[in-house]
Amino acid sequence: MDDVAERTHSEPRVAAAAKPRASRRKIVRLGIAGVVVVAAIVAGVAWWLHSRHYASTDNAYVNANTVDVAAQVTGQVVAVYVRDQQAVDAGDPLFDIDPRNYDAALAKAEAQLALARQSEQQQQAAVSVARAQLAQREAEEVNARHNETRTQQLVASGFYSKQGGEAARTAALTASAAVQAAQAAVVQAQSALGETGEANASVRAAEAAVEQAKLDLEHTKVRAPTSGTVANFSLRPGNTVMPGTPLFSIVGNTEYWVDANFKETELARIRPGEAVTIEVDMYPKHPFRGVVESVSAGSGSAFSLLPPQNATGNWVKVTQRVPVRVRVVENDPQFPLRIGTTATVRVALD
Questions:
Q1: How much is the pLDDT for 227?
Q2: Residue 343, burial from CB neighbour count under 10 angstroms (0-12, 13-18, 19+)
Q3: Does residue 167 sit in the same domain as residue 246?
Q4: Residue 206, domain member (yes or no)
Q5: CA pair distance 217, 110, nearest whole angstrom
Q6: Torsion angle of alpha carbons 19, 22, 27, 28, nearest 10°?
Q7: Do 23 and 307 meet the contact criterion of CB atoms below 8 Å apart?
């Protein structure tokens, strides 16, 4: 009986103690909910303020000028001076092509130039000979005309036969024809000669051949067209190279930019000249400064190999992305950039 009485008196005390604990839990839950709501409101306001002043995207990639190196003459590689991933300066030697064929071609072209000059001198002499012959024929014609005049006077006086007069006339006509032939020979010789000296067509053609041979010989020594880093390099001595066939690349180190692909709904506020903060994933603690250079004239899909055909089939509206070129203002050599690497850009909107 005593145990029953004790339980009867203790139950109200337990119930009284449980009620304050339930109230405290409720207050804690309400407090946590309030903190979450306040944090959400603060985050929403911060995002709204940030979106008003900044536009950002992590769909961005580092890029730089890339030059494909190719030989300009055919031949076998005899020396290689660089290796893959090596830094080079503009004008540094890259590789040499066997120059022997081009040495011989230059010697032949120089010999052809000498022959062209000799031929031009011979043609000048031929013009002089033709002019001398013309002068001789003109003198003979004058003499034949005078002889014809005297003979015709004698024939008229009866002191000379008509046959002699006809012979004198024939000689005069023959001399006149000889003059015309000599004149034609002068024209022909001058036409064959053309311009004289270095202006002569044959000489100029031979000189051009010499310059081309010199240029081909010079092209057997291939040098770096720009400063940068050698990439995709596998050339070895003994390889045969062909003109215009890319052999490797040089990634320039003087200019870098980021191709940032923004949503089309964000482009209305992005303008060339706006300041940009660039965070490259390789260097998360070293932001780069940049500036908007240009906005593409079309979306990325518009210039793809197979552009979308939105006028056919079932159509689903998808927000497009448009490339925005952001020039890197400060290129820190301590943090070298690599093309194709990802980045996050934040544009400070005006």
A1: 93
A2: buried
A3: no
A4: yes
A5: 13
A6: 150
A7: no
* 224, part of any domain: no
Write down the pLDDT at residue 12. 54
Q: Is the dihedral of CA 83, 84, 87, 88 positive or negative?
A: positive
Q: Are residues 288 and 182 in the same domain?
A: no
Closest by CA to 292, choosing from 336, 251, 262, is 262
For the chain, the average pLDDT equals 82
Residues of the chain with pLDDT under 70: 1-22, 26, 30, 38, 41-53, 120, 126, 155, 159-160, 165, 192-199, 313, 350
Q: Take residue 125 and report the two structure tokens written for it.
A: 């002499």
Instruction: Name residue 230's amino acid.
Output: V
Q: Strand locations in the chain, DSSP E? A: 54-70, 75-80, 87-88, 93-97, 221-223, 228-231, 240-241, 246-263, 275-280, 288-295, 321-328, 342-348
Range of the domain at 344: 54-69+241-348
CB atoms within 10 A of CB 212: 13
Phi, psi torsion values for 130, nearest 5 degrees: -65, -40
User: By C-alpha distance, which of 111, 110, 73 is closest to 210?
Assistant: 110
Give me the pLDDT at residue 233, please.
93
Residue 207 identity (one-letter amino acid): E
Strand partners, 70: 246
- Token couple for 284: 């998360």
Six-digit token string for 238: 């003994």
Beta carbons of 221 and 91 less than 8 angstroms apart: no
